[in-house]
C-alpha cells in the first residue's frame, strides 16, 4: 500500500447504550437542522434502532426531515423491498414512516434486478445528491462495515458481495423462522463509505470491543474492513464502556 496519512477517530465513551443512542441522535439532529439539503448515510442492524427511535421522537416534537435525502449502506440480494428481512422494510418501519421524509428520498440499494446496473445507479444517485454529508455506521464483530466483509478492497465501490457465514448467523434472528438469510448482498464499497464527509461510527457491548481494537490499534489491513476508517480524517466513534474496553485512543 502506498503511504497515506493515518488518523485517529474522535472518541466519545458513554456509560450505556441508551446514552450512546442519545448522543448519536443529537449529532444527526444538529446536522439535519443546520443544512439546507442534509444528505445522510444510514445503517441497519440492532445498534441504530435506539437512534431511529430518538429521531422519530424528535420529529414528533417538531423536527422536520423533509429536506433530508438518505442512502442506506446495503441490502440483501434477492429480497424485494416488502420482504420482512429486507433492510428496505426495516427502514420504512423504523425511520422513513416515522418522520416526514419525502417519498423517494430514502434510498436503499435494490436487492432485485441486475446488480451491476443497480450498483452503478446507486453511486450515480449519491453523486447527484452531492455526496454523503454524515454517514451513520455500525461495525460487525468480524470488523465489517456495511456488508464489506474481511478481504474487501479499501477502494471498493457499490457491488454485490458474498456474506460471511458469521454475518448470516448473526442476522438470522431478523428472518422469519424457517427462512434462510440470503448468501449475497449489495453494499456500498469501502471507497464509497470513505467519501462521506463525516462518519459517525457507533458500537455498543463487549462483543464489539475486539473489532474496534482491530480497527484502530493495528495497521490498516483488508482483514479488518473497519481499519480503513484510519484513512478518514473525520471519524467520530461513539461507544459505550463495554465496546470501548480495548481502546486506548
Ligand atoms: P448490529 O450490526 O448493530 O446488529 O450489531 C452492526 C453491523 O453488523 O454492522
From TrEMBL:
User: Which parts pass through the membrane?
Assistant: none
Report the GO molecular function annotations: glucosamine-6-phosphate deaminase activity; identical protein binding; isomerase activity
Which residue intervals define the domain Glucosamine/galactosamine-6-phosphate isomerase in the entry? Answer: 18-230
Return the SUPFAM superfamilies for the record.
NagB/RpiA/CoA transferase-like (SSF100950)
A cellular-component GO term for this protein: cytoplasm
UniProt-listed InterPro entries: Glc/Gal-6P_isomerase (IPR006148), Glucosamine6P_isomerase (IPR004547), Glucosamine6P_isomerase_CS (IPR018321), NagB/RpiA_transferase-like (IPR037171)
The UniProt entry's GO biological process terms, in alphabetical order, are:
carbohydrate metabolic process; glucosamine catabolic process; N-acetylglucosamine catabolic process; N-acetylneuraminate catabolic process
Taxonomically, the superkingdom here is Bacteria
| Keywords of the record | Hydrolase, Isomerase
Is Isomerase set as a keyword in this record? Answer: yes
Q: Where is the signal peptide?
A: none
- Which PANTHER family does the record cross-reference, listed alphabetically? GLUCOSAMINE-6-PHOSPHATE ISOMERASE
Protein name according to UniProt: Glucosamine-6-phosphate isomerase
Lineage here is: Bacteria, Pseudomonadati, Pseudomonadota, Alphaproteobacteria, Rhodobacterales
